[in-house]
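Lab notebook, design round three. We kept the backbone fixed and only want residue identities now. Task for the bench partner: fill in a sequence for the structure below.
Input structure tokens:
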């Protein structure tokens, strides 16, 4: 009987052990990637690192527009991300309690400037890992077919004239001026965040500030004019934008259906590497909105991409994560991979990129043009962006003054309300 009980006990222990073995092993490094455009490249780089070092690197990519939701869900799991991203001071305020102090780490020492260190007091909680630019991507070949070159576009008035002329001739030309300004979650950030940066930037410039709890909306008429230009000269009607996606815009541009496409340097892979477009046919021009010294305006250049390490991870995971980060920005393979992703990384060993949009930014800066800084990192919340996006979508479908008043309310009144929270 005793032997039988002992056997049963041993079987029970073995069963528990086997079940434990079947459970998910914690990754040495778990990177929650913010950028869907580079998902495959990050996975390949992680696999290469794992093969070379034996360190397991798990990469999960959040869906476009769903990063905060995904991070909130994943951070609570036993196998939580060890490496994640915040978008600047506002994002850090939400996640600081999870952030490991990077002060004195190798990766902070590799930064080309401490302006790319995200600090709170004396602590460094994040490092900017990529500097990017966005503007209006131009198919120069189609533009020439329409009778113009980029030299003809030096202001909002110039862009409006060219776009409306293309629209007037689109049946003959066989293409439109702009791709669809899709307002689903995979695309609306281009307009509720990136385009919205312009009126914020110019208001901050005029008022000599770099953040505010009460935006005035000084340049929202210019925001409206640009949004009207996108909507009225695109591949689809404004009422259809709520269902249009980021993939639709890419397909339209790659397929030669439009001359202009608002996006950033990160789109290089979608257009050239995957889309097969000739890089020599492409360039990027500033987003002109009819404000300031447009002749000397550059692209919107900056970062909202700050790596943070989860301080609640195991000590060995934190160590492994720091080593992986440092390898990405110092090794030949890591820096080349990041350059191939279209990233300009602010680290000493950065590799030169073939990205034509990065080169356009470098050329403008060298020519003395002033880059437009990324001020959307001061937007008070994701809810603020979402409310603005909903109002923009409603206005695009029915562009009345009353519907634009709702956009202004979402921009100004809701800014104050969200900042107060």
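Proposed sequence:
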């Amino acid at each position: 009987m005793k032997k039988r009980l002992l056997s049963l006990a041993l079987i029970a222990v073995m069963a528990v052990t086997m079940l434990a073995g079947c459970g998910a092993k914690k990754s040495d490094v778990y990177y929650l990637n913010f950028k869907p455009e580079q998902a495959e490249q990050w996975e390949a780089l992680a696999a290469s690192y794992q093969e070379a070092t034996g360190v397991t690197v798990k990469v999960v990519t959040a869906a476009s527009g769903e990063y905060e939701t995904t991070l909130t869900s994943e951070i609570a799991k036993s196998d939580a991300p060890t490496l994640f991203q915040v978008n600047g001071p506002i994002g850090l305020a939400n996640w600081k309690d999870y952030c490991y102090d990077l002060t004195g780490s190798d990766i902070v020492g590799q930064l080309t400037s401490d302006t790319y260190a995200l600090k709170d007091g004396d602590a460094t909680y994040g490092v900017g890992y990529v500097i990017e630019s966005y503007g209006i991507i131009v198919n120069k070949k189609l533009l020439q077919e329409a009778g113009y070159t980029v030299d003809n576009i030096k202001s909002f008035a110039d862009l409006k004239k060219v776009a409306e002329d293309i629209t007037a001739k689109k049946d003959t030309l066989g293409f439109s001026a702009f791709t669809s300004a899709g307002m689903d979650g995979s695309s609306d950030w281009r307009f509720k965040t990136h385009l919205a940066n312009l009126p914020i930037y110019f208001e901050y410039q005029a008022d000599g500030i770099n953040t505010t709890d009460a935006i005035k909306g000084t340049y929202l008429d210019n925001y409206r004019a640009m949004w009207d230009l996108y909507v009225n000269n695109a591949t689809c009607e404004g009422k259809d934008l709520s269902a249009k996606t980021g993939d639709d815009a890419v397909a339209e541009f790659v397929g030669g259906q439009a001359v202009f496409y608002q996006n950033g340097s990160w789109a290089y892979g979608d257009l050239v590497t995957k889309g097969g477009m000739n890089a020599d046919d492409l360039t990027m021009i500033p987003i002109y909105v009819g404000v300031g010294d447009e002749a000397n305006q550059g692209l919107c250049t900056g970062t909202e991409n700050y790596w943070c390490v989860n301080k609640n991870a195991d000590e060995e995971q934190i160590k492994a994560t720091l080593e992986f980060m440092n390898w990405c920005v110092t090794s030949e393979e890591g820096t080349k991979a990041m350059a191939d992703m279209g990233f300009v990384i602010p680290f000493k060993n950065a590799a030169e990129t073939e990205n034509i949009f990065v080169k356009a930014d470098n050329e403008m800066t060298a020519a003395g043009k002033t880059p437009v800084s990324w001020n959307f990192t001061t937007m008070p919340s994701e809810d603020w962006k979402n409310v603005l996006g909903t109002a923009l979508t409603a206005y695009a479908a029915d562009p009345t003054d009353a519907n634009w008043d709702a956009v202004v309310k979402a921009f100004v009144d809701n800014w104050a309300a969200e900042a107060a929270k």
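Keep this in mind before ordering anything: The first strand starts at residue 29 and ends at 33.
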